[in-house]
Write a structure and sequence with these properties.
This protein has a single domain, classed as Rossmann fold (3-Layer(aba) Sandwich), CATH 3.40.50. It has eight helices and ten strands. The strands form two sheets. An eight-stranded mixed sheet has the order 3-2-1-4-5-8-9-10, sandwiched between helices. A two-stranded antiparallel sheet has the order 6-7. One of its GO terms (cellular component) is plasma membrane. This is Reduced coenzyme F420:NADP oxidoreductase.
Length: 221
């Protein structure tokens, strides 16, 4: 099953491409510049010991190449415009929205859209017939790109379509991380807002670590 990552030439998109391809899922990077997307794909394949699990295409071609899952990993400023450009290709697919609406010029703050969250904004723009699942908001791009280190966090997954969420959870678990159903799309308001808190902690000189994530712990663990 091939997946598309739109914005896959950015740090988080690259890291996810590496992780999914290494887990055996073919990845198509989507970008406005098809040549750049293929160039990045070639670089990533070298990191995978010369494998060919990642390819690059123009934005719409990448969506068309995805069997079912399309991951949106663009900066929030390009969120709505990207969805408008591909919405006619999304029926029959699941959109996985990993975008966090950080404040312009200050990633330590969140700036939620009128819809309440990026996930909800995507669902409102695409309509209920296209399932939108919010996930992977709180995973550090630096951690994703360090293939010799495990992903150090759990993943909270939200959305209004239960079947779509279950498929996304199954996909994410290929990365050897725990993924949990965190409820409907409205809960993305809380999940997306965790990211600027983590950024603030990770850059603080008073905190003795960087690239931290969140974990869901069982009682007594």
């Amino acid at each position: 099953m091939s997946i598309a990552i739109l914005g896959g030439t950015g740090p988080q998109g690259r890291g996810l491409a590496l992780r999914f391809a290494r887990a055996g899922t073919p990845v198509v990077l989507g970008s406005r510049d098809a040549a750049r997307a293929q160039g990045i794909a070639d670089e990533l394949n070298v990191q995978l010991d010369g494998g060919a699990g990642i390819s690059g295409k123009a934005l719409r071609d990448a969506v068309a190449a995805a069997d079912e899952m399309v991951i949106l990993a663009v900066p929030y400023a390009a969120h709505d415009a990207t969805l408008e450009a591909i919405r006619d290709l999304l029926p029959g697919k699941i959109l996985i929205d990993i975008v966090v609406p950080l404040a312009d010029g200050d990633p330590k703050k969140v700036d939620m859209p009128d819809a309440g969250s990026a996930t909800e904004a995507a669902q409102a723009l695409l309509g209920e017939a296209i399932p939108v699942v919010g996930a992977l908001h709180n995973v550090s791009a630096a951690t994703l790109n360090q293939l010799d280190h495990p992903i150090n966090c759990d993943v909270l997954v939200c959305g209004n379509d239960l079947a779509a969420k279950e498929k996304v959870i199954e996909l994410i678990r290929q990365l050897d991380v725990a993924a949990y159903n965190a409820g409907p799309a409205v809960n993305a308001r809380c999940i997306e807002a965790i990211t600027p808190i983590l950024i603030r902690l990770n850059i603080s000189k008073k905190v003795p670590f960087t690239h931290a994530g969140i974990r869901i712990w069982a009682p007594g663990a």
